[in-house]
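At this stage, I put together one protein's amino acid sequence and its backbone structure tokens, which the following lines show:
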Amino acid sequence: MLVFAHSGYFHDLLDSFALGVVILNARGRVYAANTAAAALLGHSREELISDPAVAADVFRRTDDPKALRRYLREALRREHPGEARRLRYRTVDGKSLHLSLTISHLVENEKIFGVMLQITDVTEIIALHERERHIMDEKYRVERERVESLRALSSAVAHQLRNPAMSIGGLSGLLLKKCPPDDPARPFLQAILEESKRLETIVAAVGEATLPLSPRTSCFSLWNLAASRLAHVRALAAERGLSAVWNLAGQDGRLCLDGTLLGQALDEVLLNAAEASLDEGRVDVLLAPQPGAGGHAGSATITVRDRGPGIAADIAPYLFDPFFTTKSVGVGMGLCRAKRVMAALDGEIRVENHPEGGVVAILSVPGGPPSGEPPDLEHSRDTGS
């Protein structure tokens, strides 16, 4: 084999490879290399084969010589070669290269007598990835600064509008109390009072939207959370004259995240469903938890479906925009708030038309970290109300 390794035919074969190739015997000594490998490593083929000091110099020029030696030793001992390895290599003229190494076994009579080390220069690929990462980081930085600037502006505007709005509302309310019932100015004062209250609501919504969200993790029962939020929204809906018929179904599960924030997002979705439903319209709430592995809390999906008219195609792109609403009441921050909350929980929210009519909203949250004892959970449940 050594005679064959030093034959002209064998060298021509190795030189036909575009990537660098170095062959090591069972003792880890170099006994063949091609021109591409010599060019990458900065030593001639003859030096790599005949001079142990040169081979030692190659190891020293890597970013982790010990790890490279261990990688080669393990490859010679294993039945199957190890995974590809990436390293940095400093050439003789001072250039820094990123090299990718892969190993193939050389076997004769079912015995490993050496390995073929394939060396690929991935410096340009790494540099390209670094440039892309830098561009993305810069875009993220600019976007973050833009968002922070808008948040600061919104907060400042809300602060400047809050006091005048409260003054207008307070004074108009005072004048309305002193105004005789038959005074022709009374309807105008009433309109001023109502609009000032609406303005106060908008200012409060802007102020809330500019506050940072800081989720606090705790473990809780998904069913208990959904049932409590459903009871809360049912009471709100009744106050507004809405008469949806609610159905809560699915499975219970343990979640470990900020239940207060998840409850806020669920409130917005449930209230939207109640407002979209016709008289005595059915709203289905389906809980679908997924158990976690290795002691981790599970993920979950909450699906809310109403039987309303659905989403018109021309307004679908604006559902999550702040202050977008098709209703005569409200400020249009519900779904915007829900989306912001779900993002803070590393979850997501989707709202779309159901194939059989109405709208379906899907809240998805990921699994949580390992936690203590799970809460007491009942198993499958299905209730209607």
User: Anything to note?
Assistant: Residues 123-178 form the longest helix (56 residues). The longest strand covers residues 96-108.
